[in-house]
Design brief:
There is one protein chain. By secondary structure, the chain is mainly alpha-helical. It has one domain: Up-down Bundle (Four Helix Bundle (Hemerythrin (Met), subunit A)), CATH 1.20.120. It is about 70% helix and about 0% strand. It is built from 10 helices and no strands. Helix 4 packs parallel to helix 6 and helix 9 runs antiparallel to helix 10. The longest helix has 29 residues. It starts with 11 loop residues before the first helix and ends in a 5-residue tail after the last helix.
Amino acid sequence: MSVSQRPTNPTIQQIREVTQPVEILSRANSEHWLNDVYLRSVSPYFTKIFIKANMSPNAVTVIMIGIGKIAALSLLISGLPGALLAAALAQFQMVIDCSDGEVARWQEKYSPAGIFLDKVAHYTVEALVPVALGIRAAGGMSVFSSHVMTWWPWLGACLAVLVLLNKALNDAVHIARAQTGREKLEDVKTLREPTHGLLALLRSMTKFFPFQRIFHSIEMTMLIAVAAIVDAATGSLAWTQHLLVAMCVLAAVTVVGHFLAIMSSSRLK
């Protein structure tokens, strides 16, 4: 079905056939694990709304950016309500993230601006979540009007830097290849695998405890919500604070491991 033949009020089945081909759903790095669970089942319903409204893919991405920012800022609402709202909005953001690509494939409109906006969306929300977590661990926004010194917001900022650095490593690979005239990498798992024995062994161990995957907005907000539930039951901030410390340690390990994995894989060959 060519673009000119596509209806302005398509059925959900028509949207799935055009916008969710096998080569999209089988991507190793671009598809979140929740896409298979339910996100790709829900997203066509929102995609249908955007198509009927004749919205551009970039306009949908801007909506997604806004939802992500609200999700991160929701963590500044103290207690359990803020944590649960952030977790729900982070997942809604990913539904719309699916939809902007589906709208692009339906309209066959692809642009560098769209990719840029998508990068901005994920980089900013995944940096804001750790910052907000640091403020939550300190007891909320009132920490900035208090004369009591606390290091929790600084630890949240450090976590944000580590999360951004980890994301930047992937983009640095693509930049390095583009600047040396290499072809674009295929989105397959084998290219990410280290080729050296020890690193390959360590990489295989993470399959049993994939802690390197928790630095996405969905996973981070889900963990924060779990910590908030326990904190609400115990009347303290201990679990939120323990989570922040643990995430900082794991993020540092992830960045080092990610760098070594890239250098020992075939991605820079």
